[in-house]
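Minutes, project huddle
Topic: does the predicted pose make sense with zinc ion bound?
PN asked that the exact inputs be recorded in the minutes so nobody has to dig through chat later. Recorded below.
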Amino acid sequence: MSEIQTLYQDLILDHNKNPRNFRKIENADRFLEGYNPLCGDRYTVYVKLNGDIVDDISFVGSGCAISKASASVMTSMLKGKTIHEAQELFTIFHKLVTGEHISNQEREKLGKLEVFSGVSAFPTRVKCASLPWHTLKGIIEDKNTVVSTE
Ligand code: ZN
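Predicted holo structure (tokens), as shared on screen:
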């Protein structure tokens, strides 16, 4: 299969064309910018919390299809989840895109995120797929400088 076929599955194409939660949250509790200089992907992720629950999450910015679809799927999956669950999902997602072994139990939690498994064969794309997640991690860890993949 070509890179295009492996990476640009229907769900990724759909989320790239019609990104979910692609807006600014005016009264966000936290927001942070993430940048991937290798590809030029640049997004700001916004989070509104209710206690430790992700009440609302969104993003704005621009980049390649993989990064935009990843941000779109990430935000649609994390709404209503706890910060702990979000961190756990990032750990599993990171294993997926870097080609590490994933247990069946972990695979169940991935849901739609599994479409990004093809990324593991293309190291430069791993940063595109994980940029929104690294940005979210920065938010959770209360960083206030731009998160860069380099
Ligand atoms: Zn990219």
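Observations noted during the meeting:
- Residues 36, 39, 41, 63-64, 66-67, 128 surround zinc ion (CB under 6 Å).
- The mean pLDDT is 92.
No decisions taken; revisit at the next huddle.
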